[in-house]
UniProtKB/TrEMBL annotation:
GO terms for molecular function: hydrolase activity, acting on ester bonds. Residues 210-250 are annotated as: Disordered. This is Metallo-dependent hydrolase. It comes from Corymbia citriodora subsp. variegata.
Length: 357
């Protein structure tokens, strides 16, 4: 939040800002309100990141409970963390779990308040481990300018959150996005197969009928002949029409995508009713030995499905630099001129956020 004041002077005209945990949902909303009166805009995004998914209880065991007793808290963490811990003191030192239904209700209200808001950042992560609890001296010396709830240099514990629990948290948020017709930003690390399976679960039974080229041409011609002038005018009003409610999100971005080139073909199957986008950042995709694979992936991604991001929590010149760097990198790989590339990426972003470019 200490960097929000830097946003108006940035070269980037619009920022898509993600919430991740309990402490920053209202802060994202506040930042959006603060920027709304200025030329610089924020598209707020509300979601619960998998790194914090253990802090929610979602099963029916504690139905209608607004808080848990100490014994229930220990029981909850023993059920969602792996390996199972018998260290009661360690589990009691973790944040008090919250009812996921309360978070979903809050998120729905935010999405209704901000008609263009997205759901994010959500997803699955097989590699992360939860940080150890704060030691007394660490808590006293922490940087108060940082939003609470982050790792902030704490050692990592040996405990991970079960994928089963992460999937419950993810599926509930995907369902909400589908209900309100909002796009979603999805995090996936070392779980690409499970991410695809989970997303596929939301649109199962709603797949598009794949038509032959001849039939598509015939239907397209009929639509053009029957579309009225009133419909044309209505469709020009971006964000004004009520989105259709579906069991699946209409648009999904796989952020800082690190999957294989072969997986791109899975996600771009014309039978999938959701539009899948792939975003890339230099800080994640080009800072590891996997950079060569990323170049291959970017070449495979359809031109109208690629997005850019900084994946940075600090607004200002540094974020602008990361954005420019990834734009230039993609233009180089795609063999686009800089002007054509910026234009294409802008259209893609508008289509992802608004549903049309």
């Amino acid at each position: 939040m200490a960097n929000v004041q830097n946003i108006p002077s940035m070269k980037a005209r619009v920022l898509t800002v993600m919430a991740t945990r309990a402490q920053d949902q209202e802060l994202v909303a506040h930042a959006a309100d603060e920027m709304d009166s200025q030329d610089q805009k924020i598209v707020p995004c509300f979601g619960w990141h998998p790194w914090f998914s253990h802090q929610m209880f979602v099963d029916g065991q504690y139905k209608n409970a607004s808080s848990l007793s100490q014994d229930q808290k220990v029981e909850h963490y023993q059920s969602v963390l792996t390996p199972k811990s018998g260290d009661r003191d360690l589990l009691l030192a973790l944040p008090d779990p919250q009812p996921f239904s309360h978070f979903l209700d809050q998120t729905k209200k935010y999405l209704q308040k901000y008609p263009l808001a997205l759901v994010g950042e959500v997803g699955l992560d097989k590699s992360f481990r939860i940080p150890e609890a704060w030691l007394p001296n660490q808590a006293e010396q922490r940087d108060d300018s940082l939003t609470p709830g982050g790792r902030e240099g704490r050692r990592l514990s040996p405990y991970r959150v079960s994928l089963d629990h992460q999937r419950k948290v993810l599926l509930a948020q995907l369902s909400l996005a589908g209900e309100l017709g909002r796009a979603v930003s999805v995090h996936g690390v070392q779980a690409h197969g499970v991410v695809f399976e989970t997303l596929s679960e939301t649109w199962k039974g709603h797949e598009r009928q794949v038509l032959s080229a001849r039939e598509r041409k015939r239907q397209s011609k009929n639509k053009l002949q029957t579309k009225s002038a009133d419909e044309d005018e209505h469709n020009e009003d971006i964000g004004q029409s009520s989105p259709q409610s579906t069991p699946y999100p209409p648009r999904i971005c796989l952020h800082s995508y690190s999957g294989s080139p072969e997986s791109i073909k899975q996600y771009t199957n014309p039978a999938i009713p959701a539009d899948i986008f792939f975003s890339f950042s230099t800080v994640i995709n080009f800072s590891t030995p996997a950079a060569e694979k990323t170049e291959t992936v970017i070449k495979v991604v359809p031109d109208d499905r690629i997005l850019v991001e900084s994946d940075l929590h600090i607004a200002g010149d540094r974020m602008d630099g990361y954005l420019e760097e990834i734009i230039r990198k993609i233009c180089e790989i795609k063999e686009w001129s800089l002007e054509d590339g910026v234009s294409q990426l802008g259209k893609n972003w508008k289509r992802f956020v608004f549903g049309r470019s």
